[in-house]
Amino acid sequence: MAPSLFSSLLRPSTLPNDTASFICQACRRNASSFRRTRKALRVKPDPSFAPSKTEPTDHIIFNPPSSAPNVYHTPSKFLPASDPRRKLHTLAPSSTTTPPSTPSTSSPNEASASASRLRSIRPQYEKKYHLGREQIDEIRRLREEDPRQWTRVRLAEKFECSQFFVSLCCSAPAVKKEQDRQLEAIKRRWGRRKTEAREERKARKALWGRDA
Amino acid sequence: MTRDEIHDGICRRGVITLNISGEGKEDASRVEEKRRDDSYQPFTGNLNAPSHREALRSAKLSALHARLQLPIKLPLQTLARCLVDPSVDPRPGYNNEPLSILGQELLGYYTAEWLMTKYPRLPMPILFAAQYAYVGSSALSAMRAEWGVEAVAAPGPEVDPGLLQLKRQIPGNAMAEGEQMRIKHMPQARRVGSGRRNEEHNYRRGMSSRIVYDDQFGDLQTTLPVSTSDDTSPYPSAPISRPDETTPFFSQDTSSEHRPPPSDWYLPAQPTYEDPTATTLEAASATFVRALAGALYLHAGTPAAKHFHTEHVLSRHLPLHTLFNFAHPTRDLSRLCAREGFEPPVARLISETGRLSRTPVFVVGVFSGNDKLGEGAGASLNEGRVRAAAAALRAWYLYSPPAEEIMRPSEVEGKAGEGKKWKSQIVDIGEVIT
CB of A41 within 8 Å of any CB in chain B? Predict the structure, then answer.
């Protein structure tokens, strides 16, 4: 400890304390730790690449990288009722033995069993269709009376519907115009980098609907 | 003059019956040919294209015929005629335009039926785009280049008939002669169109209008002559009906054994050909390939034309899934599920890595009930969700029935008694409209 302290005192620019805290202690190799580090970094290869014990001769290794499913492989739900492949897909889950040559990615029965176990990325909700004519008129009246108090969010909370539904019922063009003006004022203050970054993000988002 | 000769004369001036027969059996009917030629000399300008008599002596033509493995029924003279663009020889009996009109319809028909039976759920815009990608002018132009057919630098009677004969358009960037302007800035003559309402610049061309009015690619028809209004002239040399006029042409025929043709047939005055408009290499190449398909159909029949289409058009690989561009994939998918009676789609996280890093990857699947519809990976949960929905929609639209179930209408066309029976094909109710 003392030598390092001494050197940092002499030359404060070499290793300031905050930088030193980031450097991984285990990554510093020297003669005593060389063998141990190398051993730790030695990663065992995938078993399918090891010489096979069961196959004495040359053979083909089938170990495809994980990738998105092919869109030309129509999901069984999308097959029309007359399609013969539909029957094959429903028969397949009953046969439990998978051929050993395919180190299975996910067979249909596994997928179906796990579908409900996977976490939904958005909160799920049931559509209620509970608002009638009077409630909708009430929404309109409130929004008309005081659009600043009764915003879309507050109306949606009060009537337990989605904000989209509120926007279908009513609008407040005057408030919208003012909000847009404020937003424009904010955008005008942005510098070149921020403006370009936003534009690029918009362009990237447009690619989501394409296969790119 | 007998009725046959009259009829022949009409055909010589007709749009498509043309002189295939005249050129094909040239040796057999040389005398008659000469006599006909005496009576038919409408083209008074300089002959720009090589004579069809040169075709037999051209090594390039024979090589092309062999390279494309064209049937022996297709004579070299017709192959030479397929290479003559209307920009070089405006006479419809000698250039490739009539053949290319036929060939365009044939190629369009075979491609459309293939696309519709193989991918019955393709949306209309994708169908148009795929049609253009298979038999559009740029694809046919590439095909011409792959076949090794070269174009002439400038047309003339002395060039090899194995070259594509066209008069090239001057590029728009070139300076106009005697002017201080570029060609593209010169006031242009009105574009020849079909004269329909949808060509006006402020007409809102929706998908329905493209289906009804436009050509097989959903583009404006630009090559049709104006024929909708009555005062415009018809296609040059087309027979037109004028019941009032007695024609001196038919008055010679007084023999009673020949029934005179309908009296309302009238041969128009010999058309005078203006200086033909120049064309681009791409347009001329497409016309050539289409004309070749049409000539194959006329000389060797449907099987040869279909074989040509399979070998040269359908052999080209088109990644259809890249043609899709969804603006609101999640909305479309939920509409689709509601329409088809599936459970509403739910996006679920299948796997993720590096959530707190700069480059996270989320693999999101869209599920309807317990069935996975699509899967997508993205740098955010939202991106993964949208991409998964787009993949699900692509999977829906790119459905293809099993290969043994697919049957094209042209396979059973005119073969009712030959044991081949039509199998009904899937007709989809259409794309999702939101």
Answer: no
